[in-house]
Amino acid sequence: MARVEALSMSGLSAIPAEYVRPQEERQGLGDAYDEAAASWSAAGSPQIPVVDVAAFDAAHPASPASLAVVGAVRAAAEEWGVMHVAGHGIPEDLIDALRGAGTGFFRLPIEDKEAYANDPAAGRLEGYGSRLAGSAGEDGKREWEDYLFHMLHPDARADHALWPAHPPEYVPVTKTFGERVSELASRLLAILSLGLGVPADTLERRLRLTSGDAEVEVEDDLLLKLKINYYPRCPQPELAVGVEAHTDVSALSFILTNGVPGLQVVNSDGAWVTARDEPGTLVVHVGDALEILSNGRYTSVLHRGLVNRQAVRVSWVVFAEPPPDSVLLRPLPELLVDEPPRFEPRTFRQHLERKVLKKNDAQEEEEVKKPPVAAQEEEEEASKPLVAGEEEHKVLKE
Ligand SMILES: Oc1cc(O)c2c(c1)O[C@H](c1ccc(O)c(O)c1)[C@@H](O)[C@H]2O
Ligand SMILES: O=C(O)CCC(=O)C(=O)O
Ligand SMILES: [Fe+2]
């Protein structure tokens, strides 16, 4: 298996054709440092909102301080579908230790990392991998990254044999981080529930509650999965992407980085905005599962990862998602009093398979959230009124 790290280290000056993105995808593509400088210096250019959730008091959700947090998170989730979250309660030394552990794994020689290689074609997504042409989008282009992907939380569901044994602190540090993110996910889901005008426990219950006989309510676990993205230096960053434009399938995603820029999101005007480094915050995305439960009030944000010439970028992404089969994802009934459902019910697995694994025949029919240029071309089509259930076709492959 050709790893992007090996390609990058070979010192090539032009990237192989399978990494060159088609012209229509290159708008706003470039060295992440140049894009970051352009995006941050443009006067009045909109930036991803920063929200501080420290003042939210779950015991007093109607207090003025809690209501202010609910309002800020709600506005960010509606208008952007992404925010920098401050006051998240995860200790900075734990975050530093997590960064050290993940970086320690990627510092191993490639042949040592290969012991953890995954095999997506055989259905083994967990492990060390690189996107193959063919699994990386209709055009078969590859992404300029290697990654490590595994279940993170709850611990009973994680197979530690698939977690790196080196560095030795990887397992304890990453496990503790998973526990803290799980608490943060619950807190944010409570805030986001209140933002929809429903009781604080609504979203988390709906993401965990086994569908079926209401008499026998069984709560399954909310699952956390970790993907560490390793983006090597790239000699032609204006032609490549680290991660192509997509929305996350999760309910929420949590992102930390090594401080190197690269994350871009589409704002409500359809323009690419490069995320700033906001020290002490986590970037939090609304994913497809939350977009569906909120009947589209919260936006599953379209985003991508850029690469650059000078520095390796590493990002840690935690996907918080419902169990694959036991929960039916559908708009909260509480929201359907005077609005029609915009999504058809589906399990998370059905959603994932349609979108990521492309196993479903309906995939070919499925429309996707498009990056700005492609979206512009289809503006006329998109401006047609939506009929109930059609909105589901908006969500994209990942
Ligand atoms: O259950 C999931 C949830 C996710 O959020 C993702 C997932 C599975 O698989 C994606 C993935 C991982 C590795 C590969 O080789 C893929 O082709 C897809 C992952 O990106 C993530 O979205
Ligand atoms: O690297 C990033 O900042 C984003 C990565 C991403 O979107 C993903 O792994 O789903
Ligand atoms: Fe993503």
From TrEMBL:
Record-stated family: Belongs to the iron/ascorbate-dependent oxidoreductase family.
Entry keyword Ion transport: no
PROSITE patterns: FE2OG_OXY
Pfam families (alphabetical): 2OG-FeII_Oxy, DIOX_N
Cofactor (UniProt): L-ascorbate
Single GO term (MF): metal ion binding
Biased composition (Basic and acidic residues): 356-370
Keyword Cytoplasm set for record: no
Domain of life: Eukaryota
Annotated spans, Disordered: 356-398
UniProt keywords, alphabetically: Iron, Metal-binding, Oxidoreductase
InterPro entries: DIOX_N (IPR026992), IPNS-like_FE2OG_OXY (IPR044861), IPNS-like_sf (IPR027443), Iron_ascorbate_oxido_reductase (IPR050231), Oxoglu/Fe-dep_dioxygenase_dom (IPR005123)
Chain ranges of the Fe2OG dioxygenase domain: 218-322
Protein name listed in UniProt: Fe2OG dioxygenase domain-containing protein
